[in-house]
C-alpha cells in the first residue's frame, strides 16, 4: 500500500491514496479541512465500523445503521499524540442481540481493526455501544 501527500499552500496538503482518491488536510488546526490527527480518529472509526457492520451481518443480525462517535485525549505538549480514545457505537436494527453487538464491537478493537490495533500500542483505547431498535 502506498500514498503520497503534496503541499498545496500555507499548511494545506492533499493526500492521494494508491486507489486514486484524494483528501485535503489542514495542518492549521483544521480551519479549512480535517487535520491529520482528525483523520486518524476518522480512520479508526471507519476501520472499526467496517468490522462491526460486517460482523453483525455475518451473524445474521438485521442491522440498519451504525455510527461510531470517537472522543479522545491528546498530550498538551509536542508531540501531541493521542493518549486515550473511546469509540462509542450506536447500532440500529431490528431485534439486535446485545451479546452479538458487544462481541462485534469488542472483537473489532481487540482483534481485527488495523488502525485501532496500531493506536493501541501507545493509546488507551476503550469502546462502548448502544442499540437502537428500528
UniProtKB/TrEMBL annotation:
It comes from the Bacteria. Pfam families: OsmC. InterPro entries: KH_dom-like_a/b, OsmC/Ohr_fam, OsmC/Ohrsf. Signal peptide: none annotated. This is Osmotically inducible protein OsmC. It comes from Photobacterium halotolerans. The lineage of its organism: Bacteria, Pseudomonadati, Pseudomonadota, Gammaproteobacteria, Vibrionales.
